Amino acid sequence: MPLPIAAVQRALQEDRLDGWLLYDFHGSNPIASRLSGLANAGKLTTRRWYYLVPATGEPRGLVHAIERHNLDGLPGDKRPYAGREQLSSGLRDLLRGMKRIAMEYSPGNAIPYVSRVDAGTVEAVRQLGIDVTSSGDLVQRFEAVWTDEAFATHQAAADRLYRIKDRAFELVRHRMRQAGPLNEYELQQSMLEWFGDEGLATSDPPSVSAQENAGNPHYTATRELNRAIRPNEILLVDLWGKLPQPGAVFADITWVGFTGSSVPDKYARAFEAVRQGRDAAIDLVQTSVKEGRDLRGFEVDRVCRKVIEQAGFGAQFIHRTGHSLGEDVHGNGVHMDDYETHDDRRLIPGTGFTIEPGIYTDEFGVRTEINMFVGEREARVTGPCQTEIVKL
Q1: Which CATH superfamily is domain 5-143 in?
Q2: Backbone φ, ψ for residue 51 (5° rounding)
Q3: Pairing state between β 251-258 and 234-241
Q4: What are 324's strand-pairing partners?
Q5: Which CATH number fits domain 148-391: 3.90.230.10, 3.20.20.70, 3.40.190.10, 3.40.50.300?
Q6: Alpha helix positions (H), the chain
Q7: pLDDT tens digits, residue range 114-156?
Q8: Interacting residues of 243 by C-beta distance below 8 A, sequence separation 6+
């Protein structure tokens, strides 16, 4: 989709910015490549290029002479350069009149997902007397906001994931009653078959982890590496998918079961802590959106993490509270994070994300994961919330 220049300019004016400078060298800035249309154009991009969208007036570009047609799909004049002297003078002319611009930059690399422009290029712009600020919220508006159609695909995917989760738990129940063998990989592969039944695409197989393996947030069972699912153990299933059509966005959920009739207190207490943390985060998001207050990703993480810390499990919560959802399972919007990064991007209408606190030990792990969508005056959870560990 071509860059919506008029919409970008409205956003720049709202944020009191003079312009947005897109820059890339050899694919170093995938955000700029996608927004410019070069990512899917099949063109060589072996030289530095710049494209400025000013808050008012015509956009303009600076592109190397041997790749001078790379930006032809974008509006505005493009000036070619060849040697480094022409590059320096061309950049000065390109940015003439600019005082404060956005680039894919994050102060202190606080948000590495946005920090795509190298320090030297930022320095070169600042040496022209221009203040460089982060384009993080701009990127969200033009890469992370869902259309109504995209939201419908998310809801459809979520509904199907919950059905697959139910089938997985029912298969485990059946095997536990029959005392039949079942391992993590076998359950994972059955779930993949059900993805096919439901018409869902996924980037990776579901995560199925039993007992101590559930204590590894990124554990993945394979044919060669897996363990049996035995009675009286924790079982964690994490699954994500989307409809196989253009513009579809992901859903991503995690549920926890116990392969016995009575959940031990140590597991129940850990799950109750993550449940309360999750619900505190949900409440903060919903209240802020309803009242029209700005809310940043790091604030959501702080609220969730405080609950878990007060329950005595802070040291075992070793990842961010949630991530953006989009056409990739980890989208380009704000993450709920003040732990791995300090994400100060705003939660803006039209975006979706996960809330997924977890507690991990050498013996076991638990996590609850739900998806949220922010509307203009309402934030909603797009599926059921697990309230206790499911007995299997």
Answers
A1: Creatinase/prolidase N-terminal domain (3.40.350.10)
A2: -140, 120
A3: antiparallel
A4: 353
A5: 3.90.230.10
A6: 5-14, 30-36, 84-94, 119-126, 136-143, 148-178, 184-198, 265-291, 297-310
A7: 999 999 999 999 999 999 999 999 999 999 999 999 999 999 9
A8: 153, 156, 157, 199, 200, 201
